[in-house]
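The data layer described in this paper is built around a simple, fixed record for each protein. We quote a single record here, exactly as it is kept in our systems:
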Amino acid sequence: MGRDAVLIPDNPDLNEEVLRNLDAFIKDKEAFAENTWRQLMKATRLWCHWCIAKGRSYLPVDADYLRDYLLELHDNGLAPATISNYAAMLNLLHRQAGLIPAGDSQKVKRVLKKISRTSIIKGETVGQAIPFRIADLNRVDDAWKASDRLKETRNLAFLFVAYNTLLRVSNIAHLKVKDLAFDHDGSVMLNVGYTKTLMDGKGITKALSPRASARVLKWLHVSGLLDHPDAYLFGKVYRTNKASVTTDKPLTLHPLENIFAEAWAVVHNDKVGTKNKGRYATWTGHSARVGAAQDMTESGYSLAQIMHEGTWKAPKTVLGYTRNLEAKKSVMMDLVG
């Protein structure tokens, strides 16, 4: 079980059925997205550490203890959305164990509402990734397109794919060379097996622009990956300026997300912005999705078109990304003059 062993508590009061349920849950973890499992493990470990420090059992989760824990997280400055996510992950753990989730308790629901309301009244806003927009991509392109450094060639191709497709970093990480289709005119198509919101087994196809296609093709040629269809499209680049040919395990998300931070340094000369919710001081993994949504809004594309490009099922997220731009379209601005 390795790192997942934290899910099996050392509590003699738990019956054998609960322990069997947890063991089966771990064995079937592939039923969940990697990010969901990662969030579950993080939330569970933090809860375990808190309970151990307090001398309390961490499973079953006691509603009164959970209430105290959530309030302490809020007092320590954690965002309400993150706190709600932690509570949801502990609820998931309970359901899979065959236990009644502590989060179903009115006292837990009430404290989550309290945390959210007090945060809003204090003027706190939901954190959002700094948008990586087309003007930013153009500046990075100017800086890296003639580079002899293989890493910068890879990074540039990655940024073009991220912006052009609006794919999440986790999806880009799993792209393989064989997922690309090449047309005689030099254009490239990406066959994406699944996304967070599309799990029907049919996948989607993304067309790359001529410039994005050129950057990806250059990366494939200079890295030698074109001869390795089973290799992941974006793998590690060694200090010797050679690309790793990896077929068994994709690059982890951290080095891929760090590409955005390196691009930020090119455009902003290492000057970081003011942190939003303690996180967003440079471009991050979601920045291309936010920036592309804003650029499409400014260019007059409809909400339906933007949602289609980003595979969003509901408009709420897109409207959150573009709220400042949409505010400028207010009819009252024309009326008041």
Notes: The beta strands are 180-182, 188-192, 204-207.
